From TrEMBL:
Originating species: Robertmurraya siralis
Main location per the UniProt record: membrane
EC number: 2.7.8.5
Similarity section: Belongs to the CDP-alcohol phosphatidyltransferase class-I family.
Presence of the UniProt keyword Secreted in the record: no
NCBIfam families: pgsA
Protein name per the record: CDP-diacylglycerol--glycerol-3-phosphate 3-phosphatidyltransferase
Gene encoding the protein: pgsA
PROSITE patterns: CDP_ALCOHOL_P_TRANSF
Subcellular location: Cell membrane
Gene3D superfamilies xrefs: 1.20.120.1760
Alphabetically ordered keywords of this record: Cell membrane, Lipid biosynthesis, Lipid metabolism, Membrane, Phospholipid biosynthesis, Phospholipid metabolism, Transferase, Transmembrane, Transmembrane helix
Length: 192
């Protein structure tokens, strides 16, 4: 297993730690930042999520720079993104920071595109993430990070940045899903 794939696996391995920090009732207290209050466990969970999310950029950078792009990496990278984002979104619903219908929409798209990739792989086609898919992932990461931090950076100006970011992520989620299916409709047209 090459270095980029190991970095991708590290993203997957950070998910249980993120879940433990976010869901176990740690009584570390609250912290104040710019007048906003945030449970310390949520701050630590947000840091873990952000660190795990940055590995998405790091593994891709090394894979491209050193020509280490593999089919395993093309499979693992989007899977790691989906697992991390889905876990974080479900946690956000549980702690009351995200609307369940938006989370269902986002996760449903992830299942649908994963299914499409599986069908294409069965026909010998490996579909790497395209630019729209990457934008979708980064808008999700920004929205989730803002929600995990309880929108604390934007509290001073009373801007619901986290909620707006989640709507933007939902928009790109639907758009990129439509894009994957429209570009690969031949799979369904040619099937019997």
């Amino acid at each position: 297993m090459n270095l980029p794939n190991k970095i991708t696996v590290s993203r997957i391995l950070l998910i249980p730690l993120f879940l433990l920090i976010m869901l176990y009732p740690f009584s570390w207290g609250d912290m104040k930042f710019l007048g906003a209050e945030l449970p310390i466990a949520h701050f630590v969970g947000a840091l873990i999520f952000i660190i795990a999310s940055t590995t998405d950029w790091i593994d891709g950078y090394y894979a491209r720079k050193y020509n280490l792009v593999t089919n395993l990496g093309k499979f693992l990278d989007p899977l790691a993104d989906k697992l991390l984002v889905s876990a974080a979104l479900i946690v956000l619903v549980q702690i009351g920071m995200a609307s369940s219908w938006i989370v269902i929409l986002i996760i449903s798209r992830e299942f649908a595109v994963t299914g499409l990739r599986a069908i294409l792989a069965g026909e010998g086609e490996i579909v790497a993430a395209n630019m729209l898919g990457k934008i979708k992932t980064w808008t999700q990461i920004i929205a989730i990070s803002a929600l995990l931090l309880h929108n604390m950076i934007f509290e001073l100006v009373s801007l619901p940045f986290a909620d707006i970011a989640l709507w933007v992520a939902a928009f790109f989620t639907v758009w990129s899903g439509w894009d994957y299916f429209s570009k690969n409709k031949h799979v369904f047209i040619n099937s019997k």
